[in-house]
Amino acid sequence: MAIKQIDFGTSEHKQMVELRKKILREPLGLSFTDEELAAEKSDILIAAFDEDEILGCCVLSQVNNEKIRLRQMAVRQDMQLTGIGASIMTFAENLALDKGYKYMIMHSRDTAIGFYEKLGYKVVSEEFKEVGLPHHIMEKELGGS
């Protein structure tokens, strides 16, 4: 398995969009708008591959000079609970740290809070709805002990 930063608009990015659509959007009856996808041009796109086949991915979006936001974390259903998600998170955190960010935040679906807590994230908000599901903002100081 290789985890790497990928470029917007490439065949790897197209695989990433398809995976996110299948895992995160279609179960909710949603898809992506052209505007949502176009906005990713300035984001950091990260994906895990086995040969040329995508296994999981995430998107990092700048909030400010200190904070970066993790979005659209997805792992292929048949590959969940294999450590791929944690490996992607470690890669994303190290990359964000290398780029000078001090904190990573996210809007976590409530069903994923336990996963992120195991990686050191803390809930820092009240519950809110996003894409029709309960979410909480979670945050972690990068490079902390």
Topology:
Blueprint: E1 2-6, H1 11-25, H2 34-38, E2 44-50, E3 53-62, E4 67-75, H3 84-98, E5 103-109, H4 113-118, E6 122-123, E7 128-130, E8 133-141
Explain this structure to me?
The chain is of the alpha+beta class and 145 residues long. It is built from four helices and eight strands. It has helices spanning 11-25, 34-38, 84-98, 113-118; strands at 2-6, 44-50, 53-62, 67-75, 103-109, 122-123, 128-130, 133-141. Strands 1, 2, 3, 4, 5, 6, 7 and 8 form an eight-stranded mixed sheet that branches. The mean pLDDT is 94.
Structural class, by secondary structure, is: alpha+beta
Main beta-sheet strand count, sense and barrel state: 8 strands, mixed
Instruction: Please trace the helix and strand order, writing H or E for each element.
Output: EHHEEEHEHEEE
Radius of gyration: 14 Å
Low-confidence stretches: none
Mean pLDDT: 94
End-to-end separation in angstroms reads: 27 Å
Percent of residues in helices comes to 25-40%
Shape: globular
Number of strands: 8
Tally of helical runs: 4
Question: Strand portion, in percent?
Answer: 35-45%
Provide a brief overview of the structure.
It is built from four helices and eight strands. Strands 1, 2, 3, 4, 5, 6, 7 and 8 form an eight-stranded mixed sheet that branches.
